[in-house]
Specification:
about 190 residues; about 20% strand; 7 strands; seven-stranded antiparallel sheet; alpha+beta; about 35% helix
């Protein structure tokens, strides 16, 4: 589908092609997940949602279009995001909002063991998970670095909300997260 879209095929044409080939839409394959949909055919919205899926797009080396966020190609030349969100297995996201921060913390676990929110000046906060982060299973390693490696600190928590607050407050320019935890040099 990604290759077809890059070749200029319209969303409507892609939906017709899928229907003509007898390829079921997601709600047809998983009706229990989508009981409010008939699942009998692919629609333009179905194709758009599939193409906007960041995980699928990353697997194909693409940046998907998200209508709700108006993200077309955040990696375009000349674009310098004030914040960049990256992780082990998901695509890099420029200028993540509160919704994206909450979503990505929900993805942190055994298959996506860290997330980093970096400011344009190189300062960052990081959330690591479990053994890969050097902490017990079910535990988050919270880290921040202010410029040089000599200003790199760490603490631990089992509270996913505390990990989310770290990202949200850093993004908002607040330093409340520094006072909430006991940080040690790394």
């Amino acid at each position: 589908m990604f290759a077809q879209r890059l070749d200029g095929q319209s969303l409507a044409s892609m939906a017709r092609t899928l229907d003509d080939a007898g390829i079921p839409c997601p709600s047809g394959v998983g009706p229990d997940r989508n009981p409010h949909r008939s699942g009998d055919r692919c629609t333009l919205r179905t194709v758009a949602a599939i193409l906007a899926n960041l995980t699928l797009a990353a697997e194909h080396g693409l940046v998907g279009y998200e209508p709700g966020y108006h993200v077309v190609n955040p990696n375009a030349p000349g674009h310098a995001a004030p914040f960049t969100l990256s992780s082990e297995s998901l695509p890099t996201m420029p200028d993540p909002d509160a919704h994206r921060l909450k979503w990505i913390i929900g993805q942190v676990g055994e298959n996506n063991r860290y997330v980093i929110l970096e400011r344009a000046d190189g300062w960052f906060v990081q959330v690591g998970y479990g053994d890969a982060a050097g902490v017990p299973a079910g535990t988050y390693a919270l880290e921040y670095q202010e410029g040089s490696i000599n200003r790199h600190f760490r603490c631990q928590t089992t509270d996913r909300e505390a990990a989310l607050q770290l990202l949200q407050e850093f993004r908002a320019g607040s330093d409340r997260w520094k006072r909430r935890h006991l940080w040690g040099p790394l």
